[in-house]
Design a protein that fits this description.
Elements: H1 19-25, E1 39-44, E2 58-62, E3 75-82, E4 85-94, E5 97-98, E6 103-104, E7 108-113, E8 119-123, E9 128-132, E10 145-146, H2 149-156, E11 175-176, E12 179-180, E13 188-189, E14 205-207, E15 215-222, E16 231-240, E17 245-246, E18 255-257, E19 260-264, E20 286-295, H3 307-314, E21 318-328
Parallel strand pairs: 4-10, 11-21, 13-21
Antiparallel strand pairs: 1-2, 2-3, 3-4, 5-6, 7-8, 8-9, 12-14, 14-17, 15-16, 15-20, 16-19, 18-19, 20-21
Length: 336
């Protein structure tokens, strides 16, 4: 693939000529796919687990775009070839989009051929690998495969429709922790720059030190979000005991170097670091709970872990907890 929506013949010698040189010497067949489908990985030919008619085609994982309406991608597509030229792009494995395309249960990324001839698809929304193999008769070859919605939806919905972290048993604590912010007042409105409608930088937080604490953790959640409730916007842990504040604009990466060793986990969106408010236009203000926990230990939790993994490690180690709540509503449709 050279550009968005352009697929060139299989016979194109990769790395030997430029795109312009190729176009100058011939007129290749070009086929298109929907914008923002986000192709991630390409595999030539199906394995022995598929009929012969699949062998000359290509397969591509489409991760999808979270902010496109209607949604595109979130599937594996088959690129049909005839005589070395691409003829069409069509769905091959679908069913990852749910709720009328408003949410998803997987994000296809990696794609590889297994030794048994099946296709292996990596899903970076759930951190799992799915095996795709052909089992039907000849007539079934033209029908896109459907993802096994039951188990996938069950996994994707884990942690959905649950209480806020500070209301769960994993965070039971005897002490109270005082949390404040120089970026917004308690129960006040958040500035646009802290949202995904604008700059998307994290606000500053501060808290009072807790005696005996060995580390602190931060969890930010929106209990007003749908269909995932609460929506996890931020998780951070292993903040050293001598640090009692977080500056504005923390980098969105799994591990921080200042202070060294502080880790960040996956949001509901699936990426590490802070993900700012982005409530639907016109809805009443959503509440964003910035929760801080004082812990009696450093946590043995890998970076990129989700909220539930973090809470499981925190259980029985929370000395005190507190929060500050900010609000945000988007009244006008943002400019494109």
């Amino acid at each position: 693939m050279y550009g968005a929506g352009e697929i060139y013949p299989q016979s194109t010698p990769v790395g030997e000529i430029t795109k312009e040189q190729w176009k100058a010497r011939s007129t290749p067949m070009v086929v298109g796919y929907t914008a923002h489908a986000a192709p991630m990985q390409w595999v030539w030919g199906a394995g022995s687990a598929f009929p012969a008619e699949y062998q000359g085609d290509a397969f591509v994982t489409m991760r999808g775009s979270w902010n496109r309406v209607p949604a595109s991608g979130y599937e594996i597509v088959r690129v049909r070839y005839e005589n070395g030229q691409a003829k069409s792009v069509e769905p091959f494995v679908t069913g990852f989009l749910t709720d009328g395309g408003k949410t998803h249960i997987a994000r296809p990324v990696g794609l590889a051929l297994a030794k048994d001839g099946s296709l292996l698809m990596a899903d970076d929304a759930n951190g799992v690998i799915y095996r795709v193999a052909y089992t039907g008769g000849k007539a079934a070859a033209a029908t896109p495969a459907k993802a096994p919605a039951g188990p996938m939806q069950e996994q994707a919905n884990k942690g959905n429709n649950v209480p806020l972290a500070n209301k769960r048993a994993e965070t039971d604590a005897k002490g109270q922790l005082s949390v404040s912010s120089p970026s917004f007042a308690a129960n006040g409105m958040l500035d646009d720059r802290y949202t995904e409608y604008a700059d998307g930088v994290s606000p500053a937080l501060a808290w009072k030190a807790v005696a005996g604490a060995k580390s602190y953790a931060v969890i930010m959640e929106d209990p007003d979000a749908k269909p995932v409730t609460p929506f996890v916007h931020w998780t951070m842990w292993n903040i050293p005991a001598h640090i009692t504040s977080v500056p504005e604009g923390v980098q969105e990466q799994p591990r921080l170097s200042d202070p060294d060793g502080v880790l960040q986990g996956r949001t509901t969106r699936g990426a590490p670091g802070y993900y700012g408010p982005r409530p639907p236009v016109g809805e009443p203000a959503h509440r964003y709970h910035f929760q801080v926990y004082a812990l009696d230990k450093m946590l043995d939790v890998p970076f990129g872990a989700d909220r539930d993994q973090l809470l499981a490690a925190m259980k029985g180690h929370v000395l005190a907890k507190g929060e500050i709540v900010g609000k945000y509503a988007q009244k006008q449709q943002p400019q494109k």
